[in-house]
């Protein structure tokens, strides 16, 4: 492994590589604990990368205890966002829209995994039967379609012989109306605590000496000395780990996956802006939620029938919405909600997920002392930005003070709910978690 020391033009205690919603949150939490911090991002502004393309859904339907606990704690950051951030952003604050969420019951049985965790943690819900689901959202076709299929498969249009058994209704779920603004809020909050941000800057080297991180070097040859460096680089996380000489040192790895989400206008009579909710429909292969202007935002749950588009270079991928994916996702939506139809004009975004082997994030230290990772967020961690910042700051503070996190995984108490979260669940060297859904619903 070749490492080198930069000739720093600056010095801080912690450099955070990335200023998306996760990186900005870590910068804020460290700064509020008195650390001198610098967030560095290649983009022109906080949240300009994959954060700005997030569906920003706030839900709790995870398949592990710590996943549910973290998402429930995460909700309370959004509920208390003004208090959490303070009156520091001239652009105003991102808003949580609590429209609720329906998790449709299907043959995968995911709801059977979720409900005991809801009961244990105290997440409110209603267990709806078919009639209750029809009353909650009468616009849905309640046919039980079986496993998701490609739209050109003859099974796609087959008539359902049974009905959906019902759904799990989470009244506290919803979505954040402006994900990029949320990252900007966190930037301003960090700056109010003395944190600094540097945009339009690429890190080209993570510098170390004798197994201890020493800082980073930028493409212009300048650098920053730091005793802590945090990789929160999203789809670039694997590249940053390689810069630190960490290839092959983690059991769980990450790689970029291209994804599209689409915006679909709906007929006025549906009034989805006011009556709609988040819907997770694994049997159809989509999730969807209201979008301002009486639109629906629809994304893929990554069904097994769809080929995944892994990306070699996160700086070079097709950023345009494709006809194939638009048609697939909108037809799946229209089958579940027939009044929507399939519009002629393609609208949406294409961006990257930073996907871990089991679609569960990695929040951990590494084999390089002082180098930490908040990566592998797999398109589903926007909702947890507040609590992730808190957990990472607690982890960094503890490990830098001598705690052996590998031998005794840190347990962090939630600031709002008092729930305990075992960070070992998100360790870099865990076994692939068989309880994971290996998919995303925003």
Notes on the structure:
With 442 residues, the protein is α+β, with helices and mostly antiparallel strands. The protein contains 10 helices and 24 strands. The protein has helices at residues 21-32, 65-79, 81-85, 110-121, 130-136, 179-192, 237-243, 272-275, 323-336, 385-400, and strands at residues 10-11, 14-17, 37-40, 57-58, 96-97, 101-104, 126-129, 166-170, 174-176, 196-198, 203-209, 212-218, 223-225, 228-231, 254-265, 278-281, 286-291, 295-300, 309-310, 348-356, 362-365, 371-375, 411-413, 420-422. The strands form 5 sheets. Strands 6, 7, 8, 15, 16, 17, 18, 19 and 20 form a 9-stranded mixed β-sheet that branches. A 6-stranded mixed β-sheet has the order 10-3-2-14-22-21, with helices on both faces. It has a 4-stranded mixed β-sheet with strand order 1-13-12-11, with no helix packed on it. β17 (286-291) and β18 (295-300) form a beta hairpin. α1 (21-32) packs parallel to α6, α2 (65-79) packs across α4 (110-121) and α2 packs across α10 (385-400). The protein is globular. The chain starts with 9 loop residues before the first strand and ends in a 20-residue tail after the last strand. The model is unreliable at 1-6 (pLDDT under 50).
